[in-house]
Amino acid sequence: MASIPSLALISLLALAGATQMAKASDTAVTTAMLQQAALAVDTVTRETGFVHRLFKPEKPSGRTIIMLHGSGGDETTLASLAASIAPDATLIGIRGRIVQDGVKRWYKRITATEFDQQDVRAEADAFVEFLNGIATEQGIDLASATFLGYSNGANLIAALTQLHPGLVRKAVLLRPMPVLSDMDKVDLSQTKFLTIAGENDKLYFEYAPKLAERLRNCGANVDARVIHSDHGIGDEDIRIAAEWLGSPEK
């Protein structure tokens, strides 16, 4: 028969174990509450329409570049870069409708590399409807236009080509990655892409080859470049894009 001191020791150990379990349980509950609080702070609003701006050069050649900004940008962000790439082109800058935690975007994101699939599709559909309307209004032939996108905007362009094949025929995608997790194979044999990835882009560089492979598997002509850069864009991107686009007749 256990002595009184032994029973007391067992009771103390049991109480300590229960206390530790309670603390672990409290920690799990606290973590869950913090995660829920973080999600609650993640505010998302959607503008009713796509804000856009038209930039016309002094001597337009008839070329048109449709610009889609990266996260945190707007309809003016890529204007200087696009004008350096093609000084004779008419530029149309468009702003994404999503504002997530105060940051303008083209669709909702879950993490830095994971995206709300339903929202990607919904915003792509809304963008196509807007684009067809402005093309009619401005007399733009979308089949001959060049789409220029950076990061978040480049990713939407890539998604557009798969969700609405035939709409985009020529695109320059800067620091892109695939955002559609599941997609049927479509015919992109009439589409040309220039993709430029930065080898020091620690977060997104590894995904760029996956996008190029996906586009090629759909029959697209993909010129995939890698430059000594991080996620930022600059003079090397301008030089490569200008050479790739070439003259207005290309």
Describe the structure.
- The protein is of the alpha/beta class.
- The chain has helices at 4-41, 79-85, 117-138, 152-163, 208-217, 235-245, and strands at 44-46, 52-55, 64-68, 90-94, 98-100, 103-105, 109-111, 114-115, 146-150, 170-174, 192-198, 221-227.
- Helix 2 (79-85) packs across helix 6 (235-245) and helix 3 (117-138) crosses helix 4.
- The model is unreliable at 1-25 and 31-40 (pLDDT under 50).
Total E-strand runs:
12
- Estimated helix fraction: 40-55%
Terminus-to-terminus distance? 96 Å
Structural class by secondary-structure content: alpha/beta
Query: What is the element string, with H for helices and E for strands?
Result: HEEEHEEEEEHEHEEHEH
- Major beta-sheet overview: 7 strands, mixed
Strand adjacency order, main sheet: 2-4-3-9-10-11-12
Return Rg in Å.
25 Å
Uncertain stretches: 1-25, 31-40
Shape, principal axes of CA atoms: globular
| Strand-residue proportion | 15-25%
With helices defined by DSSP (H or I, 4 residues minimum), what is the helix count? 6
Average the pLDDT over all residues and give the rounded result: 87
Keywords:
250 residues; alpha/beta; 7-stranded mixed β-sheet; 3-stranded antiparallel β-sheet; 6 helices; 12 strands; 40% helix; disordered N terminus
Compact summary:
With 250 residues, the chain is an alpha/beta fold. It contains 6 helices and 12 strands. The radius of gyration is 25 Å and the shape is globular.
Give the SSE layout:
Layout: H1 4-41, E1 44-46, E2 52-55, E3 64-68, H2 79-85, E4 90-94, E5 98-100, E6 103-105, E7 109-111, E8 114-115, H3 117-138, E9 146-150, H4 152-163, E10 170-174, E11 192-198, H5 208-217, E12 221-227, H6 235-245
Parallel strand pairs: 3-4, 3-9, 9-10, 10-11, 11-12
Antiparallel strand pairs: 1-5, 2-4, 5-6, 7-8
Helix pairs in contact: 2-6, 3-4
